[in-house]
Amino acid sequence: MTQPVYKFCGVHSETGLRTAADSKAAYIGFVMAESRRYVSPGLVKEWLEAHPELEKKIVFLFVNETMDTIKEAVQTVRPDVIQLHGSESPQQTAVVKNAFPDIEIWKAIHHEPNSLLALETYFENVDGFVIDAKTKHAWGGSGESFDWSHAGRYIEYGNRQNIPLFIAGGITPDNVQELLDHKPWGIDLSSGLESNGEKDPEKVRQLEKRLCENE
Fold first, then answer.
1. Distance CA 42, CA 187 (A)
2. What is the mean pLDDT of residues 114-127?
């Protein structure tokens, strides 16, 4: 089996960036929303300029943000991907897509009974999806998983539509195999790779060992 693509999300320190840089992640995500993992576009610019050797795609994550704020962030550092992780409507998502036609737009969908239908309403205006757990206290990065017995339906949709689809929420080196059994195209990792609020190189090593064992 081919290893899933993976995204190293919620980097909020230069130390975390270095850990991500040494990983096999294809994407590094920075949270531009109110969160303990928030980082400013200006700080991201400083870190990236200090590490020109970084060969990862950059993702900026926004939650119900204004276009002015998104534009300001993109002018500071032009990311490869804009991830909309809030309750942005299909219409709002289309506005962002039209404003940045050369940047990939991903939409996070929080797992609920009708979430599979929601994918169809966004499909025409996005370049990828992130399926995350729905919690009362956070839009993401909560460390909570949704019931992965439902993951196969999302993964099948992504494969059928030939669109990148990541599974997120509480993925750790200890439980990742359960998700890998569903053969996801991509996995999105954040709190499951942290110790004391920082990305943990040992947990990254353990996760990548699991991914290699799954080939």
1. 27
2. 94
Query: Exposure of 191 by Cβ count < 10 A (0-12 exposed, 13-18 middle, 19+ buried)?
Result: buried
Q: Please, are residues 197 and 36 in contact by the beta-carbon 8 Å criterion? A: yes
Q: Mean per-residue pLDDT for 73-91?
A: 97
The domains of the chain are located at 5-213
pLDDT, residue 144, reads 67
Cα–Cα nearest to 111, from 152, 74, 172, 66: 152
| SS3 assignment for the chain | CCCCEEEECCCCCHHHHHHHHCCCCCEEEEECCCCCCECCHHHHHHHHHHCCCCCCEEEEEECCCCHHHHHHHHHHCCCCEEEECCCCCHHHHHHHHHHCCCCEEEEEEECCCCHHHHHHHHHHHCCEEEEECCCCCCCCCCCCCCCHHHHHHHHHHHHHHCCCEEEECCCCCCCHHHHHCCCCCEEEECHHHEECCEECHHHHHHHHHHHHHCC
Structure confidence at residue 140 as a pLDDT band (50, 70, 90): very low
Looking at the DSSP assignment, which residues form a beta bridge with residue 132? 110
Is the distance from CB of 133 to CB of 111 less than 8 angstroms?
yes
Q: Classify domain 5-213 by CATH number.
A: 3.20.20.70
Across the chain, what does the average pLDDT equal?
A: 91
> CA 192, CA 200: separation in Å to the nearest integer?
9
